[in-house]
# Entry
Amino acid sequence: MLYNQLTPIQLERLTKLNEECAEVIQIISKIFLHGLNSSHPDNPNVSNVALLEEECGDVLNAIRLLEEIGLVNRPRIDALADIKHEKINQWLHYKTE
# Structure
C-alpha cells in the first residue's frame, strides 16, 4: 500500500478515471472555442460532438472499471445521478421539457 492507502489496482483505475475526465474537459473546451460540428484538420470526418461522445463513453468505462473492483457501487451512482438531475433541473435556464 502506498502512503494514500490505495492499492495498486485502485490507484491505476482512479488514475484512468482522472485521465478520462480531463479528456472530457479538453473536448468541451474545443467545443466552446470552435463549435459542436467543427473538427480537427487532421481528422475532418470526426466532429467535436463525436469526440465528446467518445470521451463520455471512456468515462463510463472508467467507472465500470472502478465498479469491477468494488470501489464504487453503480446502482448507488445511478440513484445519486437521478437525485442530482432533479435538484439541478430547477436551476437550469434552458429546459427540455
In short: The chain has a mean pLDDT of 94. The chain has one domain: 8-89. DSSP finds three helices and no strands in the chain.
